[in-house]
Design a protein that fits this description.
The structure is a single chain. The protein is an alpha+beta fold. β13 and β14 form a beta hairpin. It contains 20 helices and 35 strands. It folds into 2 domains: 263 residues, Beta-galactosidase, Chain A, domain 5 (Distorted Sandwich), CATH 2.70.98.10; 447 residues, 2-Layer Sandwich (GH92 mannosidase fold). One of its GO terms (biological process) is glycoprotein catabolic process. Pfam families: Glyco_hydro_92, Glyco_hydro_92N. It comes from Olivibacter domesticus (Pseudosphingobacterium domesticum).
Length: 756
C-alpha cells in the first residue's frame, strides 16, 4: 500500500512539474532568419506573437516593402513593425512601425536606422529585446491584437519615437493631452478597397515635442498633430533618459474596436513585465500540450522552436465585440460579419502537415476554420487557396477540399458537407479570376481527356496530379455522407494521374494536346509541366494511390528500387523553363539526399512511401536522417521556406513518429519518433502517449510495438485511436526488423493494392 502511494505521489509530482515546465526557454524565434532570395534557411522573421494571433510584431532590418524584412546578416534595425506577412514572396499588409531615435531627430528609414549586435538581442515569442550600439533598449511583448513596448533612452541625448505609416496611405492624429496617437494604415496587395487597419497607441510619458513628416518631401512639420496621405508618419519627443512604455492595439473593424481591443487585452497591465508573463503562460500552456522527454537539448530546442512556428498560421482575422461575440471585416467582400475568420495561409503548402497536425491539437479551432472556408465562398464565390488576407490564387491545386475532407473524416463536423461539395464542384468546373489556384485553368480538358495539355497552360502535369488528389478528397467526403451524386462526379477522376505516366521513361511527364509526350524529356529538368520541381520529385504526388503508382512502375520491387535511387542518386539539376538556378534547386544540392528536395513541399511525404511497400524500416531510417541533418534551432534552421508553418509542422508531427501522407483519410503513417516519450494532451481531456524504449540517434528502427498493451504491427494509426487516448509503446533498435509491417493489412491506405 505504501509503495502504491509512493508511486502515485511520484507520478503526480512529475506531472505537476511537467505542467509548469518552462518550455518557452527552448524556443528561438531567430530560427530560419539567415535567409535571402537566393538561399532560404526558412525565410522567417523573429516573430513576436501569441498563438494564431491577429497581429504579429517584428524587428525590421530591411527597407519598407522588402519581403525579407529581417535578415540575420544585417547589422542595423530601422523599425519595429506590426506585421502580418506569411511569406516573403507574398509580402506584407496593414504594416506600420515605431522606431526609437536618440540625439538629432531622424525620421526617414535609412537615416534613423541604428546598428546592433546579436549578442545584445533576445528573441522569444512573448518577449523580444535588443539594445542598440547607441544604448537605446527596445522591448516588446505581444497580445492577440496588440503589443506592449518599452523604449529606454540614454540619459544624455534627446529621446524621439518615430511612427512610420509605411508605403501607402496612412492617417495619423497625435493627441498630446491624452498622451495618445490614433489613426489607420491602408497597405497591401490583396485587400478590399475599404480595408483599413485602425490603431491606437497610449503612452505613459508626456510629449515634450511632436510633429508629422512625409517620406516624399524634406520637411518635418513640427507641432502638427494630423497628417493624411502616402508614405507619411509622425514623431514624438520625450525628456532625456526617458523610459517610455506604449500600449497599442489594432482593428480592421473600426477605431472604436481598436480601443476596445486595447482596453480588453492591455488595460489591466501595469507594466510590460505583466504582459510578458501573461504571454509566457499562454505559450507554455500550448507548448506543454505536446510534452517531449528524453531528447538532447539541441533536439528539444529544434522541436519547440518548430512547435512555436506551427502555431502561428493561419492567423485569426476576427475580433470580439463589446459582448465578446466574434465579428470580422471580411477580406473577401469588405463587409462586417458575425463569426470567425482565419487567413494568411497557402494550402498548397499546409494541407500536407499543418492541418493534419491541427486535427490532433486544435480541433475546436479547426471546426471554426472549416466553417470560415464556406463563409469565404459565400462572400467571394470561391473557396480560398492562398489568402493574404484576401484572395490571391497563388500556386496551384484546389486544396481547400483537402482541409474540409480531412477534418470531416477525422471527426471535425462543424460545417455543412453538402455545401462544401457544392463549393468544390464550382471550383473544379470554372476558371477563377484570382490566379492559378483559384478555380481550374484547363478544367474542360482535365474532365474530358483526363489530363491538362501543356502549351497555352503551363505546370500542367503538376496540376493534373494535384487535381486528381483533390477529386479524391471530394469523393471521400461524398462517400462519408452517402451522397452518390457528388461521389459519382469525382470518382471518375481518381485515376487521372495515370494519363500523365509515361511507361517508356518511367516517370510522370508533360503531355501535349494531341496526346503525344513533350519532347526532350530529362527527369532532372525543372519547370515546364511541373511546379518548382522535376519529374523525379513530382512522380510521387499520388497521395491517395501509391499502390497504383507502384503498379505503374511494375510492382513493389520496382517501386522500392526507384525510391532507393531517388534518395541516393546525385543531386544535379537542369534549370529548365526557370532559365536560372532558383533557391529550391540550391537547397536540394545542399541537402545531399539525391533528388529529394525537402526544401519544397511536393516531396515531403516521400520518405513515408516505404510504409506502403512493406519496408517500413527504410521510412524509419530516412525520416530520422531528414530531421537530424536538415533541421535545427539556429538562424539556418530550415532546409527551405518555412511556409506558414508547413516546414515546422512536418518536423513536429514527424518527431512524434507520425505523418498524414494522404489527408482526406483518417490515417497517420508511423515513422520513427525522436524522443523517448511524448505526451499529447488532447482537447477532449485525454492523453495520447508515445513511448520509445531505447530510443537514441542510433536506434532509429522499430523492433516491436504495442498499442494499449496489445501487439501492433501496422505502419499506420487511425485518428480514432489517437482521440481515444492511450499509450503507443515502441521498442527501438539499431537494427531493422524486416519482418514487421509487411502484411497487406499493415500498409496504409491506397485505392489500389500494390502488386508484388
Amino acid at each position: 500500500m505504501r509503495k502504491s502511494l509512493f508511486l502515485l505521489l511520484t507520478f503526480w509530482v512529475h506531472f505537476a512539474v511537467a505542467q509548469k515546465a518552462d518550455l518557452l526557454r527552448y524556443v528561438n524565434t531567430l530560427q530560419g532568419t539567415d535567409s535571402e532570395p537566393k538561399l532560404s534557411y526558412g525565410n522567417t522573421y523573429p516573430t513576436i506573437a501569441l498563438p494564431f494571433a491577429q497581429h504579429f510584431f517584428s524587428a525590421q532590418t530591411g527597407k519598407n516593402g522588402d519581403g525579407w524584412k529581417y535578415k540575420y546578416t544585417d547589422n542595423s534595425i530601422r523599425g519595429f513593425q506590426q506585421v502580418h506577412q506569411c511569406s516573403p514572396w507574398m509580402n506584407d499588409y496593414a504594416v506600420f512601425s515605431l522606431m526609437p531615435v536618440s540625439g538629432a531627430l531622424k525620421v526617414k528609414e535609412d537615416d534613423r536606422a541604428s546598428t546592433f549586435k546579436h549578442e545584445n538581442e533576445l528573441g522569444k515569442p512573448n518577449y523580444y529585446q535588443v539594445t542598440f550600439d547607441n544604448g537605446i533598449k527596445t522591448e516588446i511583448s505581444p497580445t492577440e491584437r496588440g503589443a506592449h513596448m518599452r523604449f529606454s533612452f540614454p540619459k544624455k541625448d534627446e529621446a524621439h519615437l518615430v511612427l512610420d505609416g509605411f508605403l501607402k496611405t496612412a492617417a495619423i492624429k497625435i493627441m498630446p493631452k491624452e498622451k495618445k496617437i490614433i489613426g489607420y494604415v491602408k497597405n497591401g496587395l490583396f485587400t478590399q478597397e475599404n480595408f483599413k487597419n485602425y490603431f491606437v497607441m497610449e503612452f505613459d510619458q508626456p510629449f515634450s515635442a511632436f510633429g508629422t513628416w512625409t517620406a516624399k518631401g524634406e520637411g518635418v512639420n513640427t507641432g502638427e498633430v494630423t497628417i493624411d496621405g502616402e508614405q507619411v508618419g509622425a514623431y514624438l519627443t520625450f525628456k532625456k533618459g526617458a523610459k517610455v512604455q506604449v500600449k497599442m492595439a489594432s482593428s480592421y473593424v473600426s477605431e472604436e474596436q481598436a480601443v476596445l481591443n486595447l482596453h480588453r487585452e492591455l488595460g489591466g497591465h501595469k507594466n510590460l513585465e505583466e504582459t510578458k508573463q501573461e504571454g509566457a503562460a499562454v505559450w507554455n500552456k500550448l507548448l506543454g500540450r505536446v510534452l517531449v522527454e528524453g531528447g538532447t537539448e539541441e533536439e528539444m530546442a529544434t522541436f519547440y522552436s518548430c512547435l512555436f512556428r506551427a502555431n502561428l498560421f493561419s492567423r485569426k482575422f476576427y475580433e470580439l465585440d463589446e459582448t465578446n461575440k466574434p465579428i470580422y471585416f471580411s477580406p473577401y467582400d469588405g463587409k462586417i460579419h458575425k463569426g470567425y475568420m482565419y487567413t494568411d495561409n497557402g494550402f498548397w503548402d499546409t494541407f500536407r502537415a499543418q492541418f493534419p497536425l491541427n486535427n490532433i491539437l486544435h480541433r475546436e479551432m479547426q471546426g471554426r476554420y472549416m466553417q470560415s472556408l464556406l463563409d469565404a465562398y459565400d462572400q467571394s464565390g470561391w473557396l480560398p487557396t492562398w489568402s493574404n488576407p484576401g484572395m490571391s490564387g497563388v500556386m496551384l491545386g484546389n486544396h481547400a477540399i483537402s482541409l474540409l475532407a480531412d477534418a470531416w473524416v477525422k471527426g471535425v463536423r462543424t460545417f455543412d458537407p453538402e455545401k462544401a461539395l457544392e463549393a468544390y464542384l464550382h471550383e473544379a468546373t470554372n476558371r477563377g479570376p484570382f490566379g492559378g489556384s483559384n478555380g481550374r485553368e484547363g478544367w474542360e480538358s482535365y474532365f474530358i481527356k483526363g489530363y491538362i495539355p501543356y502549351g497555352k497552360i503551363h505546370e500542367t502535369t503538376a496540376k493534373t496530379l494535384e487535381y486528381a488528389y483533390d477529386d479524391f478528397c471530394a469523393y471521400q467526403l461524398a462517400k462519408a455522407i452517402g451522397n452518390d451524386y457528388y461521389a459519382g462526379i469525382f470518382e471518375r477522376q481518381l485515376y487521372n494521374y495515370r494519363h500523365v505516366w509515361d511507361p517508356e521513361v518511367g516517370f510522370m511527364r508533360g503531355k501535349l494536346e494531341d496526346g503525344s509526350w513533350m519532347p526532350n524529356f530529362d527527369p532532372i529538368e525543372w519547370g515546364g509541366a511541373f511546379t518548382e520541381g522535376n519529374p523525379w520529385q513530382y512522380t510521387w504526388s499520388v497521395f491517395h494511390d501509391l499502390g497504383g503508382l507502384a503498379n505503374l512502375m511494375g510492382g513493389t520491387k520496382q517501386f522500392i528500387a526507384k525510391l532507393d535511387t531517388f534518395f541516393n542518386m546525385h543531386s544535379r539539376f537542369k534549370v529548365g523553363t526557370y532559365k536560372q538556378e532558383i533557391h529550391e534547386m540550391t537547397e536540394m544540392v545542399l541537402a545531399k539526399m539525391g533528388q529529394y528536395a525537402h526544401g519544397n513541399q511536393p516531396v515531403q511525404h516521400v520518405a513515408y512511401a516505404y510504409n506502403y511497400a512493406g519496408e517500413p524500416w527504410k521510412t524509419q531510417a530516412q525520416v530520422r536522417k531528414i530531421m537530424r541533418q536538415l533541421y535545427n534551432a539556429s538562424p539556418k534552421g530550415f532546409p527551405g521556406d518555412e511556409d506558414q508553418g508547413q516546414m515546422s509542422s512536418w518536423y513536429v508531427i514527424s518527431a512524434l513518429g507520425l505523418y498524414s501522407v494522404c489527408p482526406g483519410t483518417s490515417q497517420y503513417n508511423v515513422g520513427s519518433p525522436v524522443f523517448k516519450k511524448a505526451t499529447i494532451s488532447l482537447e477532449n481531456g485525454k492523453k495520447f502517449i508515445i513511448e520509445a524504449e531505447n530510443n537514441n540517434r542510433q536506434n532509429v528502427y522499430i523492433e516491436s510495438a504495442n498499442l494499449n498493451g496489445k501487439p501492433f504491427d501496422r505502419n499506420w494509426l487511425d485518428m480514432g485511436e489517437i482521440e481515444q487516448g492511450g499509450v503507443f509503446q515502441l521498442k527501438m533498435s539499431s537494427q531493422p526488423n524486416k519482418q514487421r509491417g509487411k502484411r497487406e493489412e499493415d500498409k496504409p491506405f491506397s485505392i489500389s493494392k500494390m502488386k508484388p
